[in-house]
Amino acid sequence: MSLKTTCLTYFVAIFAVLLASRHVIDPNSSPLKHIVDLSLATTSSVPSNIISYLIPNHIGRHHKKKDNGTIGSICDDFPRGFPPPDPNTTSYLCVDRNGCCNFTLVQAAVDAAPAVSQKRTIIWINNGLYYEKILIPKNKPNITFQGQGYESTAIAWNDTANSSHGTFYSGSVQVYADNFVAKNISFMNVAPIPNPGDFGAQAVAIRISGDQAAFLGCGFFGAQDTLHDDRGRHYFKDCYVQGSIDFIFGNGRSLYENCQLISMANPVPPGSRNVNGAVTAHGRASKDNNTGFAFVNCFIGGTGRVWLGRAWRPFSRVVFVNTTMADIIAPEGWNDFNDPTRDQTIFFGEYNCSGAGANMTMRAPFVQKLNDTQASTFRNVSFIDGGDWLQHNIN
């Protein structure tokens, strides 16, 4: 399948899900439309050619007509004086696909960031789709990706478990370093959308394996295994996560606040009991692991009939607090990975949730209806020891 066909299929699905959610974004007026237009403008299926098309090598060849009829540079509207001078605690690198600042590739900016630095490096990424696979190695801590809005700035690639020798390595962006921050940017995997059960079709948008990471106003777009919340303490606020099967998975200890979790699983016929998706699959393997996913003040919507979570490992731990759930949630709510021996060790809990999908009358017997004391463990940043690191990282 060509990139053009893949992106068309992918973004049509995005818009279908967005329109099905309570927070509708009009594709004709949304900044996300510019990413779509840019993707569909590319006809080559060879990644190197795509990158060359999206990221011109010489800005002098690229001009635009001004309102007064004169010809100017495409960079005329680029913010003046950017990047700013580096203060003592921060360094700035700038990425623009048209060549209007330091770098045209995000990976090139990551490579230029200092190793083992206590100083934060802010990589400012201009509007556009950056079609490249990104790796932030463990020796590059304290990096921030600063986009211009999750609907207008995106990093995308199309690896699958098959093409990358395993789900864990399929991520369009892979973060192994500590203290990573992302603001106002999307991470996408634009591999073809798989059917449930397709072998090797898992396609990760981002893998987060470093400690003390934060994501503010970010988007995560994919289908199966979109967001690999692998390990470490992580914070997500005001984010949009789209997927179908296990689309937030891993063994992280993470707090999701005010996030939209949107299923793009296929619609099911009225009255059908079929389940064709799951929001989470947590990988806690031992009672001694202090890990888990906590979702607070979130919204779950979209299409299909899905579980809130599957017990990927025997001690899987996931809770939803003050979350609005649409009617896509299956009445039983959760799945023990079809292994009843896990029912005594998993921790799946709900507290003060609302919406048609939050009715706990028919929940599976191993699901806990949390009381105030139990819920308090998960309700704020203390769950991820955020008082020790969060404000320092995001300021």
Automatic annotation (TrEMBL):
<comment type="similarity">
    <text>Belongs to the pectinesterase family.</text>
</comment>
<comment type="function">
    <text>Acts in the modification of cell walls via demethylesterification of cell wall pectin.</text>
</comment>
<dbReference type="InterPro" id="IPR000070">
    <property type="entry name" value="Pectinesterase_cat"/>
</dbReference>
<feature type="signal peptide">
    <location>
        <begin position="1"/>
        <end position="20"/>
    </location>
</feature>
<comment type="pathway">
    <text>Glycan metabolism; pectin degradation; 2-dehydro-3-deoxy-D-gluconate from pectin: step 1/5.</text>
</comment>
<keyword id="KW-0063">Aspartyl esterase</keyword>
<dbReference type="GO" id="GO:0030599">
    <property type="term" value="F:pectinesterase activity"/>
</dbReference>
<keyword id="KW-0325">Glycoprotein</keyword>
<keyword id="KW-0378">Hydrolase</keyword>
<protein>
    <recommendedName>
        <fullName>Pectinesterase</fullName>
        <ecNumber>3.1.1.11</ecNumber>
    </recommendedName>
</protein>
<feature type="domain" description="Pectinesterase catalytic">
    <location>
        <begin position="95"/>
        <end position="386"/>
    </location>
</feature>
<dbReference type="Pfam" id="PF01095">
    <property type="entry name" value="Pectinesterase"/>
</dbReference>
<dbReference type="InterPro" id="IPR033131">
    <property type="entry name" value="Pectinesterase_Asp_AS"/>
</dbReference>
<dbReference type="GO" id="GO:0042545">
    <property type="term" value="P:cell wall modification"/>
</dbReference>
<dbReference type="GO" id="GO:0045490">
    <property type="term" value="P:pectin catabolic process"/>
</dbReference>
<keyword id="KW-0732">Signal</keyword>
<keyword id="KW-0964">Secreted</keyword>
<dbReference type="InterPro" id="IPR012334">
    <property type="entry name" value="Pectin_lyas_fold"/>
</dbReference>
<feature type="active site">
    <location>
        <position position="246"/>
    </location>
</feature>
<keyword id="KW-0961">Cell wall biogenesis/degradation</keyword>
<keyword id="KW-0134">Cell wall</keyword>
<dbReference type="InterPro" id="IPR011050">
    <property type="entry name" value="Pectin_lyase_fold/virulence"/>
</dbReference>
